[in-house]
Amino acid sequence: MKEQNGIPTTKTQRSAKFVKTGFQIGGNYIKHYSKKLFNPELDNSQLNEDNATDIYNSLSELKGSALKIAQMLSMDKNILPKSYVDKFTQSQYNAPPLSGPLIVRTFTKLFGKTPEQMYDSFNLVSKNAASIGQVHEANLNGKKLAVKIQYPGVADSISSDLKLVKPFAFRLLGMSEKELNIYVKEVEERLLEETDYELEVRRSIEFSEACKILDNIIFPTYYPNLSSKRIITMDWIEGLHLKEFLKTNPSQELRNKIGQALWDFYNFQQHELRAVHADPHPGNFLITPDEKLGVIDFGCIKELPNDFYIPFFSLISADITKDKAKTIAAFRELEMIHPTDTPAQVEFYYKAYKEMIELFARPYLSEIFDFSKPEFFEGLYHYGEKIAKMPEFKQARGVKHFIYVNRTNFGLYTILHELQATVHTGTFKPQV
């Protein structure tokens, strides 16, 4: 894969890249509709493919928050056409890396030393490159280390990038800027936290200590003295990412073991710690040779305040969802039903959201759940496709916490489905 010698960092440079991409997309539409004049039956598959390629190539050069949003969108198969999902999935752990000289300059700027002066050995060729940073292999005192380096200018460009991305989001989701602002602000806050590597080191140490009671999960040791606001040094964990792991045709027993570790990891955090690793994409996990789940990134943590946790997870209980008044009361607390809604609107949203909650809660309502069941995921995707076409959902509903909590739980479900795992879901229950 071709290396990058630099990243557009100024607002002008990054804006110019978005404008150029906009012209490319415009050209794709002209080409598409010219062909459609001669072939009225032509579908949008090639148009989507061309647009996805142009957008991804642009975001890959920009890196940072723009590419991170592509990564987030790739995890929700209901939002984007398949060609976008396929292309944006590359951002999970396979974006174009930065060149060696730029890496050396980054170390010199942050530590006043080159990588070779800090470690016994340092490989300038990255092992993995994603949205916010890339990972290099190093050695020190006989220990193999992973060194995560943040791309230059990422933290400083988040706010301006989101302003540039907003028009695309408004068009994609069909919502007004005013309605989306509360959610954009939530994303901005989490992205700013993700770019603070000193915060990530502290959280990683804290969460790995809290989660060490869980079976079949391992965490790297972190080294604050070899880390900074833009660089993290931690133990190297040997293992395979999910895609490579599945290619080895693992046994059902092993699939279940890794799936159980994932389920326990996420539900222990949500229900015991009330804060959760909110970035469940496959690039953040490794399956080790001794059949354990390695967790290698704690950059995105979402805290669950009581005024969200209690009404949301109370909906897991059949006692609540069987009681229409209590269910509507919880929906109101979560701003899924608004004070200004008419009785007809209340009834509409009650039925629509109850269907969603019943789907979401299904794994919790039995002691054992088989995530390989196609009908469960077909139900989820069908529901997502259905509401995406409803004009009633072209407005902002739900408190800001839904963005990352939904991303976390449906991301977890998706990974468990890819694993085809059967798990015991009664290990860590909602506490309401």
UniProtKB/TrEMBL annotation:
SUPFAM superfamilies hit by this protein: Protein kinase-like (PK-like) (SSF56112)
InterPro entries: ABC1_dom, ADCK3_dom, Atypical_kinase_ADCK, Kinase-like_dom_sf, Prot_kinase_dom
CDD domains (alphabetical): ABC1_ADCK3
PROSITE patterns for this protein: PROTEIN_KINASE_DOM
Keywords: ATP-binding, Nucleotide-binding, Transferase
Domain Protein kinase: 121-432
UniProt keyword annotation of Plastid present: no
Transmembrane parts of this sequence: none
GO molecular function, one term: ATP binding
Family to which the UniProt record says this protein belongs: Belongs to the protein kinase superfamily. ADCK protein kinase family.
Name of the protein: Phosphotransferase family enzyme
Lineage: Bacteria, Pseudomonadati, Bacteroidota, Sphingobacteriia, Sphingobacteriales
